[in-house]
Amino acid sequence: MNTAGWLLAVGLATSAAWAADAGDTARPGQRPPAGSDEDELWYAMERAERELQQHPQLVRDPALNAYVRAVACRVAGEYCADMRVYIVEQPWFNASMAPNGMMVVWTGALLRFQDEAELALVLGHEVAHFRERHSLKQWRKAKNTSAVVGSISLLAFGGGAGAAGYLANFLGVAGLYQFSRDAERESDRLGFAAATGHGYEAAAGVRLWQRMKAEEDARRYGKPIPVFASHPRTAERLADVQAAAQAQGAGGTTGREAYRAAVQPFLVQWLEDELSRRMYDTSVRVIGDLRALAEPELAATYTFFLAEAFRRRGKDSDALRAEALYEEAIALPDPPPAAFREHGMALRAQGDRAGATSAFQRYLALTPDAGDAAFVQQYLSELEATP
∠ CA 234-239-241 to the nearest 5 degrees? Predict the structure, then answer.
């Protein structure tokens, strides 16, 4: 996958002599020769990394960072000491690794993973890009093209935009610099071997890419989603991982329980971020997949957010689907308080004054300090005043 920081380096690194072939496998602890263009690239990456460390969208929760880093180190093996792992709050499926060992994982990916095995497979893929120095090779190939030169104005690194600039512009340029299909397949193969070699289930990649294919197919307009823009066709990737899993055979661990425990505290925020993309066709698909396998304690949360995706999309019978899902959510254990508000709104529209009153009262009892409490109280007053 492309990295935003790597893109920035295109405008900062200059051509110079270098000692190692760009296709050579990196050695653990290896740094580029002083004065080489690889050294210049690392300098740019280190500068981008310092900016990222100060960015407000960086997720700083110690427990979540420790968990993701532990999985990354498991598949990285002897390269663990060369990596720094950063989690960035962005609602897209993406992970990347810069040539200096800066690994970035977006929360949109963490939302979509169902278990630790899927996380390990993707992180293993990124470590393989680092180990095989793919980004350096691709940068050297692309750095003198007019497309690269023309893209620098979008990135504005060092001109006041900093990390905010490259995060904001990443979606617009992510498809411009792509690893070759051979490099992607090599990273898939090495990442798969690293994950399964540490006991993770081989079928994890099949599950993951089946869902990614379904999400890709659900989007009927606009530019490609970043993960799809910078990789071989998803159908090809799915076929490759299916063949690899079949050859590997059954067995291995999914690590679902550990993964769910690590990400559960953040799910509500990530689901809200997912809806903030306003890509409701894909959100219906993503949240529906999560809901299908949800543990009992999360069923109400996913049901509510699926209802929200339908309501906000507003196609055909979406309003009726949303109303049914709100009603289902409040009947499940531990529903989000907002489910009562939305259920009340639906009952109010249907003329069910008693039902709407009960739902609104429940919402206010659960969230007395809600920002919209005054509006909900107004609805209650109107209901009480209606003969």
Answer: 95
